[in-house]
Amino acid sequence: MWLAVPCFVWLSACSAGLGGLLPGASEPSGILVTDAPNASATLTPFQPLPESPTPTASPTNTATPTVSPTPVDPWEDFPAPAEASATEIPRPMPRIPQSPEVVNVMLLGSDQRPYTGGYRTDTMMLMSLDPGTGTAILISFPRDLYLYIPGWRMDRINTADVRGGPELTALTILYNFGLEVDHWARVDFAGFMGAVDTLGGLTVQSTGYLFDECGGRYWSYAPGSYTMNGFQTLCYVRMRKANDGDFDRLRRQQEVVRAFFSRVLSLDGLSRVPQLYSQFITSVRTDLLLDDLLPLVPLGLQLGTDETRIHQYRIDRTMVDGWRVPTTGAAVLLPKRDVIQAMLNEAFGVPTPLPSP
After folding, report:
1. What is the CATH number of the domain that holds 171?
2. Is residue 336 part of a domain?
3. Domain that residue 191 falls in
4. What are residue 187's DSSP bridge partners?
5. What is the pLDDT of residues 113-149, one digit of tens each?
6. Which of 6, 21, 58 is CA-nearest to residue 244?
7. Where are the beta strands (DSSP E) in the chain?
8. How many structural domains compose the chain?
């Protein structure tokens, strides 16, 4: 089903390094494009990874976490830490109750470049599909969230996949957000661009303003409709130098997900699930099989014809505090667990307990 196959190929865009425009790339409709004043005459398609990743978060405030002795075994039944942490390890988040019909797919965007061995999972989104209610929930996680990686230590959420693969990522999501992950999919930026171009481009409904640089050019967006090819869509979801950085990217990533829904339906894509699966499986790594997707086709039709059934949530600036790790100087985001838990309870319809008398 389209929801969980080509719909996730956009994810690499948030972290992929880009240089010049690809050969044959056309300008997106309705977008002001100008050359960067300091653009070089020859653009480098791929930038090398730095030897030591530079922290990317730009905290607007500095929070000092309460440093106190970690309670004995706060991790309960989860793996104990293998290394010391800079902050106290919190207890696991209460589990979110969900129907057995619900399928939770973790979508991961890798920043892996050609001819490099390392990567980071700089885009993370949980797509929760509920055939019983005919709805889907999208939850986006900032890459610099500083939380407990079970069996390791407190660290950024985007290190979990590198440390222990999708399995450790799923365990991290369960520990810190109380959400079970049933399946996963990971894609790099080359697969993303190819998938968009295979569809003939996307029409994205932008809901905000953006003026930023990508590929040696400046791109300008206002609320409205824009037709984009693979490279242009990649730039749209990747740019983060302006407009609240990573937090605004979460909004644009979810807009592209909606654009995928609309495009596939316009191509009668839900009737061609096996063909689409074989086409896009070469662009992604996933544990999803065709047999996992076919039962979700009716839900895909419901979501594609009624976008009000897609509910979008993201961990935004009001749900975190900026902080620098004393031992490394890394800029990270400390989650406000009670605020995030309230958001998750709202998203999944969990009743808020009444205060004690």
Report:
1. 3.40.630.190
2. no
3. 2-28+91-209+227-316
4. 109, 284
5. 555 555 567 789 999 999 999 999 999 999 999 999 9
6. 58
7. 32-35, 103-110, 121-130, 135-141, 146-149, 153-156, 183-187, 202-206, 210-214, 217-221, 224-228, 284-286, 310-314, 320-324, 331-335
8. 1
